[in-house]
Write a structure and sequence with these properties.
Layout (H helix, E strand, L loop, with lengths): L9 E5 L3 H9 L6 E6 L3 E3 L4 H5 L9 E3 H5 L5 E5 L2 E5 L4 E4 L4 E3 L2 E4 L3 E3 L7 H4 L1 E2 L3 H20 L10 E5 L3 H20 L9 E6 L10 H13 L2 E5 L3 E5 L2 E4 L4 E3 L2 E4 L3 E3 L16 E2 L5 E2 L2 E6 L4 E2 L12 H19 L13 E7 L2 E6 L7 E3 H15 L3 H17 L10 H13 L24
Parallel strand pairs: 1-2, 1-9, 2-5, 9-22, 11-18, 12-13, 12-18, 13-14, 20-23
Antiparallel strand pairs: 3-4, 6-7, 7-8, 10-19, 15-16, 16-17, 21-22, 24-25, 25-26
The structure holds flavin-adenine dinucleotide.
Length: about 450
């Protein structure tokens, strides 16, 4: 990519998630040149990843190619690449392919990763739900458990049909509700498993599900989950994780091959490369204008930023915060260039919502919006409506809406496909090792070179 100096102000945005895209949109068709860098060529709509993992939506429905989003902006270019380091003194960002991109203003919007709180085995054995690939892998793994159980009736005793979720925040609750619904469909696919009941165990160290919500909402969510068959374990933490079991805080060992980790995030490790002391959760302490205290040209936004709200607590790591921060930084850059002073960032909290499952959602408006609360069918409809509005891409919206309507009336989950990377890798090895015409024999390719054994069996 050409990085020749132009006279126009160059804004480099790292990360095309909610925050990064909001910066690009707020600077579209203005006097600056924007380069948006992301390791993927698509934006992932993370709030719907759990639906991909539970076969409710296809992977393509919750992602949108970034070039398709920015091509109408005129002054915004996309560069696919993984950022590995920063040279803030020379105003350069380094990519792992060796290229360096120069900037006048830098916005770091690389999001967050799941934190393991130092619990042994989490990083090695738990399933995380942060990327599209992880969602597809988890879905494939879940279906593989059913395939294995169908072959061997002892499999459910070995924990193949026990699915544990750590963390009963919105992601854990949504995942638990959706798994129960998936199992209702999957059960019909496996007559061999008649009489077996898959388990969903939701594990939460505090005393309630959906901890940030009001007591009435928490009680409704817990009641609904239990009624639908989820085993809710409160005041219990995961202490150790192994491939075929997990150990809980009270010493109980639960046989399971599936622990889904929804127990909190920490800022993306790229924040460590900024060379500044980090705050709790690895978040970067930034000024009220969202830049590094001694580098006004370096902004950090979204899940990676540590800014305190009026209540003295850090803003939640949610999409609305990232979007509002992105818009604010876009405005700040333009105001600076135009010689005016910008106002400090203030988060306008609109409230929070989560879905428990079919016809059961919860929505709480913020105090600024009147503090109303509604649950059940209305909460569910509100959740669907808001997510459809924010899902990028007209086709994605049409697909998601059509699929939801179809699923609602048929109770189906159409994307029950095993498409994980493990299977793709095995397929590639099998293809590479298949005898070709003229092959000299087992273990030797047609050209006489040695062929490696398949890695996966
Ligand atoms: C499963 C799940 C469900 C969620 N549900 C909700 C919800 O219902 N409502 C809600 O408000 N919030 C929800 N969130 C949180 C919300 O998604 C985040 O708060 C939001 O995405 C943060 O935006 P961001 O711009 O900071 O980072 P992200 O949106 O995470 O974007 C970060 C971008 O940076 C890119 N990137 C990372 N590292 C590099 C690198 N080295 N080089 C180049 N690019 C890089 C990534 O590919 C990604 O595109 C959920 C999160 C998850 C994981």
């Amino acid at each position: 990519m050409a990085t020749a100096r132009t006279t126009r102000h160059r804004v480099l945005v790292v990360g095309a998630g909610f925050g990064g895209l909001a910066v690009a949109r707020s600077l579209r068709r203005t006097e600056v040149d924007v380069t948006l860098v992301d390791q993927h060529n698509f934006h992932t709509f993370q709030p719907l990843l759990y639906q991909v993992a539970t076969a409710g939506l296809s992977a393509e429905d919750v992602a949108h190619q970034i070039r398709g989003i920015v091509r109408v902006h005129g002054n915004v270019r996309f560069r696919m690449g993984r950022v590995s380091d920063f040279d803030l003194d020379r105003r350069r960002v380094l990519l792992d392919d060796g290229e360096a991109l120069s900037y006048d203003s830098l916005v770091l919007a690389a999001g967050a990763v799941y934190g393991d709180y130092g619990i042994p085995g989490v990083l090695e054995h738990a399933f995380m739900l942060k990327s599209l690939h992880e969602a597809v892998d988890l879905r494939s793994h879940i279906i593989r458990q059913f395939e294995a159980a169908a072959l061997d009736e002892r499999a459910s005793d070995e924990g193949r049909l026990t699915f544990a979720i750590a963390g009963a925040g919105p992601t854990g609750v949504e995942m638990a509700g959706a798994l129960v619904e998936l199992f209702a469909v999957v059960r019909k696919d496996y007559p061999e498993l008649a009489g077996t009941r898959p388990r969903v165990v939701l594990i939460e160290p505090t005393g309630a599900v959906l901890p940030p919500y009001t007591p009435a909402t928490r009680a409704y969510a817990e009641r609904t989950l239990r009624r639908r068959g989820v085993e809710v374990r409160l005041e219990t933490a995961v202490r150790r994780v192994a491939p075929e079991w997990i150990e809980l805080g009270d010493g109980e060992v639960l046989s399971t091959r599936t622990l889904i980790w929804a127990a909190g995030v920490r800022a993306h490790p790229l924040t460590e490369r900024l060379g500044v002391p980090l705050g709790p959760g690895g978040r970067v302490p930034v000024s009220a204008h969202l830049h590094l205290p001694d580098r006004p040209e370096v902004f950090v936004i979204g899940d990676a930023a540590g800014v305190l709200g009026d209540d003295g607590r850090p803003h939640p790591q949610v999409a609305q915060v990232a979007i509002q921060m992105g818009k604010h930084v876009g405005r700040t850059i333009l105001e600076r260039l135009r010689g005016s002073t910008s106002a400090p960032f203030r988060y306008r909290d609109r409230g929070q919502m989560a879905i428990i499952g079919r016809s059961a959602g919860v929505a709480e408006l913020s105090r600024q919006l009147g503090g109303g609360r509604f649950g059940g069918f209305l909460g569910w409809l509100a959740w669907l409506f808001v997510h459809l509005i924010y899902l990028p891409g007209h086709q994605n919206r049409v697909n998601a809406m059509a699929t939801w309507i179809y699923n609602f009336f048929t109770y189906d989950r159409h994307a029950r496909l095993v498409l994980d990377r493990r299977e793709q890798a095995a397929e590639a090895v099998r293809t590479a090792t298949a005898p070709r015409p003229g092959a000299a024999g087992d273990g030797v390719g047609g050209d006489g070179t040695e062929v490696r054994e398949p890695v996966f069996r």
